Amino acid sequence: MHRFWIIPTIVLLLLIFYTNFKVGQFLPECKVLAMLITLLLFAMMIGWEIIYRYNVSLADNLWFRALAWTGSTLLGIWVTFILFSLLIDMGYLVFLTVTKLNNFSLFTPMQNSILFQRISIVIFIIALLIAGFGLKTALSVPKIIDIFVPISGKLSSLQEMKIVQISDLHVGALIRHDYIENVVQEVNKLKPDLIVFTGDVADGTVQGLIKQLQPLAKLYAPLGKFYVTGNHEYYWGAKQWVNGMRELGFTPLINENQIIDFKGVKILVAGVTDVSAGQFLPEHKPDIQQAILSNEHSDLKVLLSHSPRTLCEAGVAGFDLQLSGHTHAGQFFPFSLLLPLAHKYHNGLNCQDDIWLYVNSGTGSWGPVNRFGVHSEITVIGFREEAKI
Q1: Helical H segments across the chain, by residue range
Q2: Rounded to 5 degrees, what are φ and ψ at 93?
Q3: Strand bridging mode 321-324 / 348-352
């Protein structure tokens, strides 16, 4: 077995073991049934993903979509249930250790069993509610989020400009043509001057999904529509996806830039490939210094970068604004609370030194179709002159 798979396999086995333990709390007298339910659950949650990777075109079949939606919904319930259960069980282990060391016990083993069975039932009900409301939110039209980036007085004409950002659509087995059509209608209603797409367009091959993405060709902005790669493009053939997005009318920015003019203000719009791109295609290794190179003067420099982690380097290079995605803002509670552990800037408008950063929470969804507490979004970026003190 390749070394890469050792740790994931160990983690998977531990999760199966722990899930079986939790299912066993519901069925204390039926260990065999508990194991069968556990194995069926994992087969449903993971099996459709394996089948999909073998043949992306199966997503066009009704039976497969039913399987995928069932597996994804179960995954959303399971993830929430397991996370809350781990927190409760770890707390209980600490409590149990303290009581053992001090030679006292509040409950008998039987009382403990009944108590944790009831706690597991309550957690399961909470997980069902979170997954249900999260699914409803994920299927709804993305929210329109308006943000304003401060600018100096000499760029005041930019106050009439409107940039629309979409990111992380993740078109695939679950997010399909109709969802994209709704997104396109919402974006075109906004009448943007410029459209930017900050990566993770799809999960699948171009051949298998390009028909689902055809509505993107109807997006229109007079100053153009620009695109940079996210990490997921590299799992499915980044070069093909770059060409596919070009066919849909986007201008891919692969460590390069274009100068656009808005009412006399020159704007450098640059794009870098995803931070992981070099691991898949050496020629796609992100290069912010290369991306900003231009012989033409610009009044404002904007960087499109899928990951917000490039912010420091972008600031050093001289960019004024970075637009990113990738984080999904945690996508659903309680992961939205844990996200700051992985990303310093994970959502919304932020400023570090002399550069502004906006992180889009994702226009689509990935993994469990769950958006509990974190709505998908279409971002409208405007500019506002800084108030004089």
Answers
A1: 6-26, 31-54, 62-101, 109-139, 177-189, 206-209, 238-247, 288-292, 311-317, 335-338
A2: -60, -40
A3: unpaired
Note down the domain range covering 232: 142-385
Residues 236 and 125 both lie in one domain: no
Q: How far is CA 25 from CA 15, 18, 33, 208, 246, in A?
A: 15, 11, 12, 43, 54
**Whether residues 161 and 295 fall in one domain:** yes
Decide: helix, strand or coil at residue 283: helix
Same domain, 226 and 122: no
- Phi, psi at residue 199, to the nearest 5°? 95, 170
| Contact yes or no for 251/227 (Cβ under 8 A) | yes
List pLDDT tens digits, range 329-368. 889 888 888 888 888 888 899 999 889 999 999 999 998 8
Q: Are 351 and 149 in contact (CB under 8 A)?
A: no
User: Is the domain of 122 the same as that of 153?
Assistant: no
Q: Is the pLDDT of residue 100 over 80?
A: no
Question: Which one of 101, 123, 138 terminates a domain?
Answer: 138
Residues 245, 350 within the same domain: yes
Please give the torsion angle defined by the CA atoms of residues 189, 192, 196 and 201, in that order, rounded to the nearest 10 degrees.
10
pTM equals: 0.89
Q: What is the pLDDT of residue 294?
A: 93
Pick the last residue of a domain from 86, 114, 138.
Answer: 138
- The secondary structure of residue 373, as a DSSP letter, is T
From the DSSP assignment, how many helices (H) and strands (E) are in the chain?
10, 12
Residue 388 clears pLDDT 50, i.e. is over it: no
Contact indicator for 51, 64 with CB cutoff of 8 Å: yes
Q: What is the pLDDT of residues 141-182, one digit of tens each?
A: 999 999 999 988 789 899 999 999 999 999 999 999 999 999
**What is the pLDDT at residue 124?**
92
CA angle 144, 314, 194 (to 5 degrees): 35
One domain, residues 108 and 155? no
